[in-house]
């Protein structure tokens, strides 16, 4: 990898004299080191190969630092859209796992969720299997999950505030359910949302999904459709996700962000945020 800059950031304050940081400066032969904030630094004029970058990643990981290599820095103004996965990206939970918990079925459902997110199980099949396990559950369980368990991920609020203030549009695209995405869209003043519709009959879940399942292909199509509507290209979109079913929409984006993601996703993303919050993307776009 040849790069012009490295951004290192942490939830803790970064001491510019930290021995590990000094080691990284020496490894990269950086022309300059500038402080972005007390929690983030930028190394400029860096030229490194994959082996050296891998060594730097190990140094950073041992200190709970995130490191991002940027070959061509882009300002926030380059982008017009931020598209986000919901479960375990914009919010901390997997909604379907928490719904299943109301049935005493969380371990069985969570196991299928994990396999799908790692890319070991095709998403459509995994969703059909998981939703089927919810058959007969009272729909009030959805309200309980939203009211009692749903929380925004670390840094989500300041990230959204900054991108909305800059005029970027927002899209929530999820393999989860409209019950949650519709409420998140209204609560956070998002511009677009797209997800799966749970069938409910007489106040009970039927164990089925209505209509097209929002899988990896549908997520990509949704990003493309919204970009077309906004008269922009996917290169003007930032796409955030954590699981294998996010990879296709991340792959067409101008910047892809893996947040607390599975290894298969981290490996393919432009930016991997393992420790800092979603607002860590702002340090990379300065």
Topology, pairings included?
Layout: E1 5-10, H1 19-28, E2 32-37, E3 40-44, H2 50-62, E4 65-70, E5 81-84, H3 95-101, H4 106-117, H5 123-132, H6 140-148, H7 156-165, E6 169-177, H8 178-188, E7 192-201, E8 204-210, H9 216-230, E9 237-241, H10 247-251, E10 255-259, H11 263-266, E11 271-273, H12 280-285
Give a short synopsis of this structure:
The chain is of the alpha/beta class and 286 residues long. It has helices at residues 19-28, 50-62, 95-101, 106-117, 123-132, 140-148, 156-165, 178-188, 216-230, 247-251, 263-266, 280-285; strands spanning 5-10, 32-37, 40-44, 65-70, 81-84, 169-177, 192-201, 204-210, 237-241, 255-259, 271-273. The protein has 12 helices and 11 strands.
Mean pLDDT: 94
Across the major sheet, the strand order is 8-7-6-5-9-10-11
Low-confidence stretches: none
Helices, by number, come to 12
CATH architectural type of the largest domain: 3-Layer(aba) Sandwich
Q: Overall 3D geometry?
A: elongated
Structural account:
It catalyses: O-phospho-D-serine + H2O = D-serine + phosphate; O-phospho-L-serine + H2O = L-serine + phosphate. Its EC number is 3.1.3.3. Belongs to the HAD-like hydrolase superfamily. SerB family. Its cofactor is Mg(2+). The structure is a single chain. Helices cover about 40% and strands about 25% of the residues. It is of the alpha/beta class. It has two domains: about 5-75, 2-Layer Sandwich (Alpha-Beta Plaits), CATH 3.30.70; about 75-285, HAD superfamily/HAD-like (Rossmann fold), CATH 3.40.50.1000. Helix 4 (about 105-115) runs antiparallel to helix 5 (about 125-130). The longest helix is centred in the C-terminal third of the chain and has 15 residues, at about 215-230. The two termini are about 20 Å apart. The mean pLDDT is about 95.
């Amino acid at each position: 990898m040849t790069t012009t800059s490295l951004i290192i950031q942490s939830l803790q304050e970064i001491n510019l004299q930290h021995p590990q940081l000094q080691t990284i400066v020496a490894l990269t032969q950086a022309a300059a080191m500038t402080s972005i904030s007390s929690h983030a630094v930028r190394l400029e004029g860096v030229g490194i190969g994959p082996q050296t970058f891998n060594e730097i990643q190990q140094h950073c990981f041992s200190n709970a630092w995130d490191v991002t290599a940027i070959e061509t820095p882009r300002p926030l103004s380059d982008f017009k859209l931020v598209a986000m996965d919901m479960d375990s990206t914009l919010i901390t939970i997997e909604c379907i796992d928490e719904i299943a918990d109301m049935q005493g079925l969380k371990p069985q459902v969570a196991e299928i969720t994990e396999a799908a997110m790692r890319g070991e199980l095709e998403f459509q099949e995994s969703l059909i299997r998981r939703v089927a396990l919810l058959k007969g559950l009272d729909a009030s369980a959805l309200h309980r999950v939203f009211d009692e368990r749903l929380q925004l991920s670390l840094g989500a609020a300041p990230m959204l505030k900054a991108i909305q203030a800059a005029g970027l549009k927002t899209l929530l695209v999820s393999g989860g359910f409209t019950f949650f995405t519709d409420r998140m869209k209204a609560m956070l003043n998002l511009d677009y949302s797209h997800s799966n519709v749970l069938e409910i009959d007489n106040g009970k879940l039927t164990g089925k999904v209505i209509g097209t399942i929002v899988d990896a292909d549908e997520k990509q199509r949704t990003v493309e459709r919204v970009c077309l509507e906004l008269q922009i290209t996917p290169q003007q979109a930032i796409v955030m996700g954590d699981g294998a079913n996010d990879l296709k929409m991340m792959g067409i984006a101008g910047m892809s962000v893996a947040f607390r993601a599975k290894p298969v996703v981290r490996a393919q993303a432009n930016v991997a945020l393992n420790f800092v919050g979603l607002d860590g993307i702002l340090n990379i776009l300065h």
